[in-house]
Task: inverse folding
């Protein structure tokens, strides 16, 4: 598989490993039954999140943004995803971290597939421009790395309700999954 930006391969892997370690440390600290194992490169997805009580999995794509999204405060009204990623039906979640690796946005592939598709010019690492499909959605959520528990609450809601779309973003209401010692995991 030809990489569009081979020079970004190592920064991507380093950012993903940092994200994975923070994710797992927070889950362990709070007793949240989620785990993100290290994954082998397969050129399809970047990993999975396992609900350890049920063994259900969410397969995700991870991307480190190197421009336009530097720090917390995602600067756009919609989130884009390349068509080559939305066609991979095995993937259900997109995670895109910012350049500073202190915040990230997430969107569900189901919501991208309902969104708009258009052709855009995309530069490759060699400087060539290709016309590629880009899907977008306005249904995304941004988290700081320091809010990893809120992201994990969202994932627990998705697992519990078997809804892998933006409906699980609503985590600030009274029926939310709590992150305290009162968490009920046996559903």
Result:
């Amino acid at each position: 598989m030809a990489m569009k930006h081979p020079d970004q391969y190592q920064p991507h892997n380093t950012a993903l490993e940092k994200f994975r370690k923070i994710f797992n440390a927070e889950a362990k600290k709070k007793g949240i039954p989620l785990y993100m194992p290290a994954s082998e490169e397969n050129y399809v997805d970047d990993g999975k999140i396992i609900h350890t009580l049920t063994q259900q999995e969410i397969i995700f794509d991870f991307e480190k943004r190197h421009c336009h999204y530097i720090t917390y405060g995602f600067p756009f009204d919609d989130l884009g995803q390349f068509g080559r990623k939305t066609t991979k039906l095995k993937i259900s979640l997109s995670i895109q971290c910012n350049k500073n690796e202190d915040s990230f946005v997430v969107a569900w592939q189901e919501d991208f597939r309902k969104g708009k598709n258009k052709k855009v010019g995309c530069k490759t690492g060699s400087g060539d421009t290709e016309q590629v499909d880009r899907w977008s959605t306005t249904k995304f959520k941004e988290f700081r790395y320091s809010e990893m528990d809120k992201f994990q609450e969202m994932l627990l809601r998705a697992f519990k309700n078997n809804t892998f779309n933006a409906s699980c973003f609503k985590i600030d209401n009274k029926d939310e999954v709590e992150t305290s010692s009162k968490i009920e995991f046996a559903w």
Observations:
- The radius of gyration is 16 Å.
